[in-house]
Amino acid sequence: MPNRTLLIGAARERPCTLVVCRGCCCGDPGKHPGTDHAWQLERLRAAGAEHGFQVRTTDCLGPCDQANVIVVQPSAAGRRAGGRPAWVGFAMDDDSTEDVVRWAAAGGPGLAEPPVTLELQFIRPPRDARVRSRR
Questions:
Q1: Is residue 81 classed as helix, strand or coil in its secondary structure?
Q2: By three-state DSSP, how is residue 105 classified?
Q3: What is the C-alpha to C-alpha distance for residues 35 and 29, in angstroms, rounded to an integer?
Q4: Continuous segment of H or E residues that includes residue 56
Q5: In terms of C-beta density within 10 A (0-12 exposed, 13-18 middle, 19 or more buried), how is residue 108 classed?
Q6: Exposed, middle or buried by CB within 10 Å (0-12, 13-18, 19+), for 85?
Q7: Fewest CB atoms less than 10 Å from the CB: which of 5, 107, 115, 131?
Q8: CA-closest candidate to residue 120, choices 90, 93, 94, 98
Q9: Looking at residue 62, what DSSP letter applies?
Q10: Is it true that the peptide bond before 68 is cis, omega within 30 degrees of 0?
Q11: How many CA atoms lie within 13 Å of 91's alpha carbon, on the beta-carbon side?
Q12: What is the reported pTM?
């Protein structure tokens, strides 16, 4: 008998999700005055509504020296296809915001290749995030 995984409820249909850091450094116009942080979040939310991915904010994700940080989490289908969360750092300009939008709209990790320019911004998650993900 083949090994089958039964997915119930939200796990079966969960879309690609962007987790946008808005902690102590990310999104802080006092620390990063050349970036329109409010526009970035509005753009991501508008694109999510248009293309069917989710956007949520969180407090500090940890790598403050690499602000703004966005974690692109795979959809349920993307995870089944082998996709894992991708941590994007230094996401402060319009180009990187648009790269994140294009990738999430195309399906995100596991379903679409990230733009090459965005891959250059991939960062390692903080150690405590890596430990949590292995549990």
A1: coil
A2: helix
A3: 7
A4: strand 54-58
A5: buried
A6: middle
A7: 5
A8: 90
A9: S
A10: yes
A11: 32
A12: 0.85
Q: Give the single-character DSSP code of 115.
A: P
The DSSP result for 10-47, as a single string, is: HHHHPPPEEEEE-SSSTT-TTT-TTS-HHHHHHHHHHH
Residue with structure tokens 């796990």?
A: 11
Q: How does pLDDT run across 44-81, given as a tens digit for each residue? A: 999 999 999 999 999 989 888 899 999 999 999 999 99
* Residues whose CB falls within 8 Å of the CB of residue 27, separated by 6 or more in sequence, listed in order: 20, 21, 37, 40, 41, 57, 67, 68
Cα–Cα distances in angstroms (integers) from residue 86 to residues 5, 36, 39, 110, in the given order: 24, 23, 22, 10
CB atoms under 10 Å from CB of 109, counted, come to 22
- Tokens of residue 107, six digits: 């399906």
End-to-end C-alpha distance for the chain, whole angstroms: 28
What is the model's pLDDT at position 5?
54
Residue 30 CA to residue 25 CA, distance in Å, equals: 9
Yes or no: say if 111 and 53 are a contact pair by the CB < 8 Å rule: no
3-state secondary structure of 82: coil
pLDDT confidence of residue 127: 74
